[in-house]
Amino acid sequence: MAQLQLAVEQGELGECDFCGRRFLHLRLEKHMNVCSKSQGSKRKVFDSSMARARGTDPVIAPAIYTNHSSPSVQNEPPKNNWRQKHESFIRTLRQAREMQHVISKGGKLSDLPPLPPVENPDYISCPHCNRRFAPKVAERHIPKCKTIKNRPPPPPQRRLRHQQCAQPHKNTPTLLRSN
């Protein structure tokens, strides 16, 4: 360190013609040899997306990493179902208010009727397993589900809902018409 300060004071530093950095005269010639080689050739920029895509389908891989805002492909705007979402939100608030009212009176929550299922209208139902998926996920799922041979039974809540529709509830009184 002291040698470097002494060299700076005595003016023994020379400047590289290629990069402009300053070196001791003893090291300047060696640096200029290396620096001239690196300055002459531009280094190729590494594209990590193409490295990840290597080994995949050559037709699909470049399309994945291209600019997504091409003017030729016009996606239709998503359906605006704000009214359904708003009504669902209001229903949820009313149910919560009703639950708070029952709790404050000292009642049991089990005395309240079961909450209706909240279904997202944006979801698409699979025709094979009756599960619901977001649109892009449904595009992937439905072809796979179509080929499944040993399909498990549908989810329990779906099964229960279908049974409840077919049979009246045990505790629900049936109304008989009298003429």
TrEMBL record:
<keyword id="KW-0175">Coiled coil</keyword>
<dbReference type="InterPro" id="IPR026104">
    <property type="entry name" value="ZNF_C2HC_dom_1C"/>
</dbReference>
<keyword id="KW-0863">Zinc-finger</keyword>
<feature type="region of interest" description="Disordered">
    <location>
        <begin position="144"/>
        <end position="179"/>
    </location>
</feature>
<protein>
    <submittedName>
        <fullName>Zinc finger C2HC-type containing 1C</fullName>
    </submittedName>
</protein>
<keyword id="KW-0862">Zinc</keyword>
<dbReference type="InterPro" id="IPR049899">
    <property type="entry name" value="Znf_C2HC_C3H"/>
</dbReference>
<feature type="compositionally biased region" description="Polar residues">
    <location>
        <begin position="165"/>
        <end position="179"/>
    </location>
</feature>
<feature type="domain" description="C2HC/C3H-type">
    <location>
        <begin position="12"/>
        <end position="41"/>
    </location>
</feature>
<dbReference type="GO" id="GO:0008270">
    <property type="term" value="F:zinc ion binding"/>
</dbReference>
<keyword id="KW-0479">Metal-binding</keyword>
<dbReference type="Pfam" id="PF13913">
    <property type="entry name" value="zf-C2HC_2"/>
</dbReference>
<feature type="domain" description="C2HC/C3H-type">
    <location>
        <begin position="122"/>
        <end position="151"/>
    </location>
</feature>
<comment type="similarity">
    <text>Belongs to the ZC2HC1 family.</text>
</comment>
